[in-house]
Structure formats: structure tokens, C-alpha cells
Design goal:
By secondary structure, the chain is α+β, with helices and mostly antiparallel strands. 33% of the residues lie in helices and 26% in strands. It is globular and about 80 Å long. The model has no long low-confidence stretch (mean pLDDT 93).
Length: 266
């Protein structure tokens, strides 16, 4: 499986992906799910992919070759939106070519893509592109997307991230989100690819691969687990002798009666 997350902020963008693929407990592989496209002083895009690996590789190959759709590819698109349309068209091209053969083999056409970046003259933008080739764009209110095994890392993102979050804090939260996923799902695994893009930089200076030996990520994994345990143990224990009036404030008696209890008959 996969876990990828991307965050769009006023300071820039954060992209993070794992590299594990598996077709069973004894068929584990490592494949890159992040691709960066750069044209100096003009545009930078990043693509994160999840789903059927053969499908996503075919889509990326079309983009890498610069195939034109109505005369447009990601290198000459006038906006990030237009570039996202190109990605959607690449998905549809692969779908048109392969979907019937996949269906005959009992395989669904399954792919999910996060695509984002910046074209000179506009702000950074982020898109979640579906297997039909259509997409939604991140907003001020919803400034991050996840694909793959999203549920484990979502709570920390929801609690901390907003459009004005500092880029370094967002990077840290993305890594914690990934660590939570690694902890709870063996189908997601190291190494990780991380790209932090600063608005108007048009560079990939902060792009790294993180493996088991990375000291910063090791620190996050150890400290996050320790701090979570400390927080939980510091919270007041349940008081089973609490005032019944307090209980009635939490659960109004007229809406919910007592818990049903069945006792064994003698």
C-alpha cells in the first residue's frame, strides 16, 4: 500500500511519501511514489501517486515524455491548474488503453494522485486527482490532501495544520503523521521521500530521502511516542463517584436511557 500527504500553505508546500509496495506479506518492494518536475525560474511541480503501480508508472511516463494534450503539457502549461488538467488527461489515456484488459483480468483501474507546485506569476497550488482524471483543489479551509492509508495520520493534521501554519511546523507534523501510519500499518514503510518547497523559490533545495538511520526522524519517532504516553498518564483518571448532575449534562436522560444489561437467569 501507500501513504502520501501534501500540504499547501501561504509559505509553500510540503510533500511526503513512503516507498513500500506489496502484493502480499511475502512480496514487498520499494518504489518511488514522488516525482519532482522542475524548470528553472519558471515552475516546480511534485506528483505523489498511490494505487496500481503499473498504472501510476504509465501515467508518469506520459508526463515524463512531455506528451501534448491539445498542445499542452506540464512544461508549457500556463498555470498549475492547466498542468493538473494534463495529469488528468494522462490518466484517461492510460485508462482508455488498459482498462478493458485489466477488467478482463479482474483488476480495477485504481490510481490516486496528488499534484501541486507553482508556476511563475501565481501562488503555489495543490490538487487531488482521481482515477477518472477529474480533480479538486486545496482551499484556505482544506489545505492538505492524503492518499493511500490516510486514517492513521489524519488526526494530528486536523488538530495542528491550517493555511497559516509555519512551513517547518507543517513539515514536522507531516513526519509525525507518517510515523503514526508506520506504527499502525505494516503496508507502509521506509524509506520516505520529503520535499519542502518555499513559495517563489522555484528550487528543490529541500528534497531528501529518509531511512532508518536519519537522526531527526528517529528523534521524532522516539519522542512522539514518549510524549503521547506522558500526556495520557497526566490526564485525570475517571471519577466513578462523580456528581450525577454532571453526568446528566453530558447525556440528557430524555435522549438516552440506561445501558441495557442482560443477566443470566438462575
Amino acid at each position: 500500500m501507500t501513504y502520501c500527504v501534501a500540504i499547501c500553505l501561504d509559505q509553500g508546500l510540503v510533500f511526503l511519501s513512503d516507498t513500500r509496495t506489496n502484493a502480499g506479506v511475502d512480496d514487498i518492494g520499494t518504489f518511488r511514489k514522488m516525482t519532482i518536475y522542475q524548470k528553472s525560474n519558471d515552475r516546480v511541480f511534485t506528483l505523489l501517486s498511490a494505487g496500481n503501480l503499473a498504472i501510476t508508472q504509465a501515467i508518469k511516463e506520459i508526463l515524463n515524455q512531455g506528451d501534448l494534450f491539445d498542445g499542452v503539457n506540464i512544461w508549457n502549461a500556463k498555470s498549475s491548474h492547466d498542468a493538473a488538467v494534463v495529469v488528468g488527461m494522462a490518466i484517461r489515456k492510460v485508462k482508455e488503453r488498459d482498462e478493458r484488459a485489466l477488467a478482463n483480468a479482474g483488476i480495477d483501474f485504481n490510481c490516486s494522485i496528488i499534484f501541486g507546485g507553482q508556476v511563475v506569476g501565481e501562488k503555489p497550488r495543490l490538487f487531488n486527482i482521481y482515477s477518472a482524471g477529474n480533480f479538486v483543489e486545496s482551499t484556505y479551509e482544506t489545505c492538505y490532501f492524503q492518499i493511500g492509508e490516510a486514517k492513521y495520520g489524519k488526526p494530528i493534521l486536523d488538530r495542528v495544520i491550517n493555511f497559516h501554519t509555519d512551513l517547518n511546523l507543517a513539515t514536522k507534523v507531516a513526519l509525525i503523521s507518517m510515523d503514526s501510519t508506520l506504527k499502525s500499518n505494516i503496508s507502509v514503510g521506509l524509506p520516505l521521500d520529503l520535499f519542502v518547497y518555499s513559495t517563489n523559490s522555484f528550487a528543490k533545495n529541500q528534497a531528501i530521502t529518509i531511512d532508518e538511520s536519519n537522526p531527526y526522524f528517529s528523534m521524532i519517532r522516539n519522542l512522539w511516542g514518549t510524549k503521547l504516553t506522558e500526556i495520557v498518564t497526566s490526564i485525570q483518571e475517571p471519577n466513578w463517584q462523580m456528581d450525577p448532575n454532571l453526568l446528566s449534562m453530558v447525556v440528557p436522560p430524555q435522549r438516552l436511557g440506561p445501558i441495557p444489561t442482560i443477566e443470566e437467569k438462575a
